[in-house]
Amino acid sequence: MIDEDGFLALGKFPSVGDTRSVTRAEVLALCLAQQAGIKSAPARIVELEGIPVAIIRRFDRDGADGRIPYQSAATVLQASREEERSYTEIADAIRSIGLAPTVYLQQLWRRLVFNLLITNVDDHLQNHGFLHVQNGLWRLAPAFDLNPFPDKERESKTWLSEEDGPITDLGMLLARSSYFALSQTAALAVLADVYTAVAQWRKIAVSPTVGLRERLTTPFIIL
After folding, report:
1. Which of 91, 148, 162, 216 lies 20 to 30 Å from 79 when distance is taken between CA atoms?
2. Cα→Cα distances 139→70, 113, 204, Å
3. pTM for the complete prediction?
4. Residue 133: CB atoms within 10 Å
């Protein structure tokens, strides 16, 4: 769809089978990600005849509406969705094809902490991507498709590493922080940043951008 300022965007509608406000929850997660120092797709809720629609800006277009080459992590790793692949493999890809790899390795680890804290377990390889920068070098695309699942076990779809298996707790992430170019001290500082941002979820939830009502706000993000 074309947004109010003429920029290309996606409109995501709720399903008739939703038992909670999935579109508002996704916009809330994207807003919280920005607060947590994670570059994420700009998003807001617009109501159409009382239906909350998530308006999410396309990040694969430049200012002249030209397309920026994009590839998913699945494409980069030449992996199918059914395969059990790992974040350490994505980290290796960042080292191989990434512009400023240290920056994006640390950004990836920040996203892993965030996903764990909000129980975003829909983190398959199609939900991570890369944008082309120059001369065959790529950068992490902004975060997208961030969805809290408070009713599910905290077990990531993408493994932390082949040895570790799915991410289930913060201890696993801290133990692997050096693989993502972070010392223990730096990793703990990132964890504190992300935790502080996520802890503000109620305030962001009732903001005009998300539009949840105070009396309907439930703690679906469990710290």
Report:
1. 148
2. 10, 19, 28
3. 0.93
4. 15
Dihedral (C-alpha) 159, 163, 164, 166: value to the nearest 10 degrees? Answer: 30
CA distances from 131 to 99, 142, 156 (A): 10, 9, 24
The angle formed by the CA atoms of residues 130, 134 and 137, to the nearest 5 degrees, is: 50
pLDDT in tens, 115-174: 999 999 999 999 999 999 999 999 999 999 999 988 889 999 999 999 999 999 999 999
Q: Phi, psi at residue 90, to the nearest 5°? A: -65, -40
Tell me if 130 sits within 8 A of 210, measured CB to CB.
no
The rounded radius of gyration (Å) of the Cα atoms in the chain is 17
Q: Token match 């080292």: residue?
A: 95
Q: Which two tokens mark 128?
A: 């991570």
Contact assessment for residue 70 and residue 129, using Cβ atoms and an 8 Å cutoff: yes
